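Exercise: predict the structure of this protein bound to adenosine-5'-triphosphate.
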Amino acid sequence: MTGLIRLSGIGKTLTGQGESRAVLSGVDLTLHRGQSVAVVGRSGSGKSTLLSLLGLFDRPDDGTYLLRDRDITRIPERRAAALRSAGFGFVFQRFLLLNHLTAAQNVAMALVNGQGWLSRRQRGAKVAAALDAVGVAHLAGHRPPRLSGGEQQRVAIARALVREPEVLLADEPTGALDAETGDLVVEALRGATRRGCGLVLVTHDREHARKMDTVLELVEGRLT
Ligand SMILES: Nc1ncnc2c1ncn2[C@@H]1O[C@H](COP(=O)(O)OP(=O)(O)OP(=O)(O)O)[C@@H](O)[C@H]1O
Ligand SMILES: [Mg+2]
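Solution:
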């Protein structure tokens, strides 16, 4: 396995209503291709903050962020946006699907930007493969309101995977699902790592965390 992401000494202070708080201090994290890492920690421990730094939505105050050995700690926003869309897939607690589009159309939306030109046929094949990878190929023509929560979340994962990201970042993707449905979603995420994707899963569910290769806990701003 080669190093995909290497965070070292990451610090982040957030300021709200005049009060500032060191949310992360000295966070080290290594993610390899095909590796899955669970991040657990109590509410407010900084898990979402860490994911937003990993996903280049925000920048750290201290430390370095290497992606494939390139230092991207302070790259300008334009390059960060390009990297986000080319290299990262995101899955959130809320599925954020468009209700008036079918499952397949929701996934196809992710191919509209940043993929260069694709023929209709190539696009269709990628969408079908992504839906199939998470076990919802048979639901391609259904609109989200007719799908269960777990099915919607798997469509959302297909949307994150269709661009073949190197890194998948998931923040409480099973938070809105019952246990059994959550298991299917975690299985779908694990499936992505078998195809070489690095996965960082933030979860409150210890069972789900245990299914990852590595489990890290955020305590007082550090990963242990
Ligand atoms: N914009 C902000 N300004 C100030 N403080 C913030 C801001 N955003 C988040 N925080 C604080 O930073 C801390 C970490 O927040 P974060 O959302 O990363 O926690 P979390 O571990 O994801 O929690 P949860 O499990 O509830 O989702 C919290 O104490 C939160 O109140
Ligand atoms: Mg959070």
